[in-house]
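Lab notebook, bench 4. The sequencing result for the construct came back, and we need a structural model before the next group meeting so we can plan mutations. Quick request posted to the team channel:

Model the 3D structure of this chain.
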Amino acid sequence: MSSTVERFALLSHTIPKSGAHIRFPLSTFRTAAYANRGGSDSDGVMLGRYTQTAVGQAFTDDGGVFVDVTTDLNDAGADDVLIYPAVEAIGDAFYMGDDELFGGVNVNMGVVGVGVTAIQAWEYWNGAAWTALLSMIDGTVGGGDTFGADGILTFAIPSDWVKNEVDGNNKYWVRARMLVVYATTEPIATQAFLLRANSGIGLRVPVTGYLTDVSLTAETVSGTGDSDFNVVNVTRGTATWFRLAGALDAENVAVNQQLYFQKDDELLLQMLTEDGTTEYTNSNLVYYFRA
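Done. Here's the predicted structure in token form:
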């Protein structure tokens, strides 16, 4: 957590009622800007901290033939993970998975990929099809190529993400599917780590209930672009996300899917996408829980 950022949280003594439910507001104040990246190695966490973990399973997919690279991807041996097959083909893929949900991957490259705008497709399994990850920031892009630099990939943790089998291993998977071959140098990784939803610390929530919506007021507003955030219950390894529209100094939005917290569960806030010009500063973000 950055030492330049001031944070505090309070449970309001005012408890408004709506029907049979009670809404509890939990307020956090931030003087510094909401800006998701301090560089490609930033994970975008604004409140709390991820503890990076080993990758549960990793495969290179060579036209349907899977090569297990888990051990090499998790150890510190240099330049020992060929991300794509030695003879590349469109549709080859690199898979990383885990038994738990995760909101990012930190990849250390040994040999960076060099192509001609070799941007690959990052996808997850939604129970019916491989689908593009939303609100994705790919910190591995360098020189216009995926896996062209060390960096952290972050994304909105999907509400419809389900486990599926890859070469007989049932996990939550993301994959980088090849759309463009690397014309000059094929990427080789050294090591990778996951940002698992159940690994880290966050703000203790003082009530039991469902997170339903959030409100933001800010002295300085963002530019016209939207800002997306993950909200993670680190205690339970569950997550949701929400989007704030740009250029508004006050806004209330529902979260993508209501998220359950028990008293003293820990909340982590991760910024995913941002406007990139002007950012929110001197802002109050309020989380509303329905008991």
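The two ends are 30 Å apart (CA to CA).
Will bring this to the meeting.
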